[in-house]
Amino acid sequence: MIGTSLSGVTFISVPGTVGKMTAGDYAFGGFEYYMMVIGFFIGYFIVAGVLLPLYYRMNLTSIYTYLGRRFNVEAHKIGSLFFIISRAIGATARLYLVVNILQIFLLEALGVPFWVTAFVLLLMILLYTFEGGVKTIVITDTLQTSFMILSLIACIVYILSNLNLSFGEAYSILEQKQYTHFINTDINSKTFFLKTILGGMFITIAMTGLDQEMMQKNISVDNLKNSKKNMLTFAGTLLFVNLAFLFLGGLLYLFAIQNGAGYSSVTTIVEGKEVVTNLFGFKDAAGNVTNIMGDDLFPALSLGHFPMALSVIFIIGLISALFPSADGALTAVTSSYCVDLLGLNEDQQKTEKQKKRLRMKVHLTFTVVFFALIMVFKVINEKSIVYLIMEIAGYTYGPLLGLFAFGILTKFTIVKKYAILAVTLLAPVLTYLINLYVTNNTDYRIGVELIILNGFLTFVGLWLVRSKKLEVA
Predict the structure, then answer these.
(1) Contact 341, 20 (CB under 8 A)
(2) At 307, phi and psi to the nearest 5?
(3) Which domain holds residue 90?
(4) CA 211, CA 213: separation in Å to the nearest integer?
(5) Taking the chain (473 residues) in consecutive chunks of 10 residues, what is each chunk's mean pLDDT?
(6) Residue 459, in any domain of the structure
(7) How many domains does one find in the chain?
(8) How many other C-beta atoms are found inside a 10 Å radius of the C-beta of residue 217?
(9) Rounded to two decimals, what is the model's pTM?
(10) Alpha helices, H only, 410-449
(11) What is the CATH number of the domain that holds 7?
């Protein structure tokens, strides 16, 4: 579970958020991201206390079966469809980050095109999902997660040693340079701490509690008590690991400044305020100097300024961060499509051989879809993927959040054909229009609480189309 959650985004993008910089409409820096991590932590308790007991009580294999039992087949399929869309976009955003890093800092100088890098990595992931059984995946994911954490520790130890600083001395310097501030008190800012905590909480409820891949790992535990223990232990571990990645981010900026990596700064106006963006010159293999920031900082220093041994450890850590999340996502969307949308498990007409062939075709099709989405992210070329993923999740997971909330918190049924489909499609559109209006006409900026707004609009829409007849208990 830790390996699936701590993808390349955590490994690369979280350290990059520490510097004062901008990413789209975001102005952030320091350890502000940790407020979202605290929101994640609270969210895991809600998932463990509310959703896990529900899934165990109903003895679910696919969690979207709940929507089918609670409402109708339409709700079941819509829930699965939104999961597939959400997981595909989120997974490919994470994949893009790793592919782009390998491309820029290793393969571009060798003349390898971006699409070739993406294709080869996806092919490796595809073969990995074919060859590895459940036991193999558990063992290899555990090893990969261990390598990622070891890479994190090795980089922290090296930088502290290089700068001749203890842990406490480094933190004091970061504090003086205002790299360690946790709380953004500007209520209009996208990263205002209360908005970030609440947004992080609901993102966890949606991206973990309503995510087939993540919940499958929990409901496969032999009983509810151990499943809760598993989730809460995992939640506590993430508090420490994310803090370590943020500390590493601060150290990277100190290293870049003190080792003459071409430090400069640019002042821009974001949300009506001056924001200083730290840039660091990086010399590529051809001797050309380019400015780097955000997600590019860690790989640039690791592959251009760290010793060869640490560069190798970095690559191992990066690949280790990629595979547990990517292979799981590809397998999960294939499984959900076959089980929830095609109803393959209940299909008595097809032989096992025919079912296996169909699963293979679906799996290969999603691999092609993943490749196409990676190329789309290449065009977007966002410099801080972690916040982009949270914003996309606000639109795609919001309808799932509203559907499950309406099912759990009310006793009403919905019998009108296509009513659920209409509501779940309309809510994200309204959310986008509201966000656009607020951004263009007020000083307030909607941040990660976007998912709350989307879920609320979905809930209200379902309430308006509800049947007057209560569900039979």
Answers:
(1) no
(2) -60, 155
(3) 2-378
(4) 6
(5) 63 74 54 89 92 86 84 89 88 82 79 89 79 59 76 89 89 83 82 87 87 78 88 88 89 78 54 54 54 69 80 78 72 84 78 85 91 87 66 87 92 88 94 92 85 94 82 49
(6) no
(7) 1
(8) 18
(9) 0.80
(10) 419-441
(11) 1.20.1730.10
